[in-house]
Amino acid sequence: MVESASCLSLEICARSVDCLPVGSDSRHQDQDPVENLPDVAIVVDSACCLSPELVRRWNITQVPHHLVIGDRSYRDGVDISPSDFYKILREDGVVPTTTAPQPQEFLDGLLAASEFARNILCITVASNFSVANRSAQAAVEMAGDGLAHCRVKIVDSQAAAGALGLIALAAARWAHEGCDLDQVSGRVDRLIPRLNMLAFLESFDYLNRSGRVSKIKAWTGSLLGVRPLTELQGGQARLLERPRSRRRAMDRLVAITQRRVGGAPVVVNIMEADAAEDALMLEGLIRDAVDCRELFISQFTPVMGAHTGPGLLGVAFYTDEDYSSDMETNHGS
Questions:
Q1: Residue 77 has pLDDT above 80, yes or no
Q2: Rounded distance between C-alpha atoms, residue 134 and residue 304, angstroms
Q3: Are 60 and 279 in contact (CB under 8 A)?
Q4: Is 98 helix (H, G, I), strand (E, B) or coil?
Q5: Model pTM score
Q6: Which tens digit of pLDDT belongs to each residue from 30-47?
Q7: Alpha-carbon distance 290 to 278, whole Å?
Q8: 3-state helix, strand, coil in the chain (%, to 5)
């Protein structure tokens, strides 16, 4: 079921703080220990396509989904990398399954984030793709006094993969610039409907096996031999076109992106599932076609790749209306 609002807000108002943060100097015990913390920490589930380097750089807390292969369960991004995951898919022909983070896992992430910020914005994959959003809400409810010093907002991104990653990354940058929780969540709400995510699949084999995306699966009867070009927006997936080759699909990705952004500067996340060479080629095509304020390549999240299979190539992007001054400074130097 699609949520009616993008921000499902569960707020725990500030009460009292009885101890100093780890590492505090005892000479300053007469000061409110929360005063020296940043206002907002960002928590996101691993359905985003953000590299470990970006997660570390912007101090984002990531909560892993689980990948079940045979009789083994792996924490996404912790016990198994995207490269290893897609290698297993290609070589072993297994049919993996996925499970969302449990409430306790979200709670662990929220508690970790609360150690370095006064408030927390937790952004989850679209609620009609996963129960992750409900799991995060349950984590807040079971937190009790553990998050008594924080306000926590849970946001349904209505997105996944690279689009979810762009939302989390923008939120982390706004928090870094000094925006408070309400300002960051307000900007996120305005960014969500502006996100675009386009991708084409190598085949429908994995969707057929998984049975998880029934609407897209219903198209398979008439799509043999094509590279279905799909869109995910507002938590809904739909078929856009039916190109007959990978190169044609790449050209159409670029053309649609160019048409949608016009002449505006754009932030782009190219996603690849065991298709690194094609991703580099797509990068060149996109840079030639649009004004990229920022572009990076990421590995497609195994949480979704389990159902789409290796070979996927896609782009997530938005026009740069609210882009952070920090990145403008970096790219201008």
A1: yes
A2: 18
A3: no
A4: strand
A5: 0.83
A6: 444 444 567 999 999 999
A7: 18
A8: 40, 25, 35
**Portion of the chain with pLDDT greater than 90, in percent:** 60
The pairing of beta strand 266-272 with beta strand 292-299: parallel
At residue 250 the predicted structure's pLDDT band, cuts being 50, 70 and 90, is very high
Backbone angles phi, psi at 67, to 5 degrees: -115, 125
Which of these CATH numbers, 1.20.1260.10, 3.40.50.970, 3.30.1180.10, 3.30.930.10, describes 195-332?
A: 3.30.1180.10
* pLDDT at 202 (0 to 100): 84
Q: Give DSSP secondary structure letters for 166-185.
A: HHHHHHHHHHHTT--HHHHH
Amino acid at 12: I
Residue ranges of the chain assigned to CATH 3.40.50.10170: 7-15+28-65+100-193
Q: What is the pLDDT of residue 332?
A: 43
Q: Tell me: pLDDT of 249 over 50.
A: yes
Torsion sign, CA atoms 187, 190, 194, 196:
positive
Q: How many Cα neighbours within 13 Å face the side chain of 49?
A: 28
pLDDT of residue 148: 84
- Looking at the chain, list the stretches that DSSP marks H as alpha helix, in order from N- to C-terminal side: 52-57, 82-92, 103-114, 132-143, 161-176, 181-191, 205-210, 214-217, 246-261, 276-289, 302-308, 325-332
Distance CA 122, CA 114 (A): 11
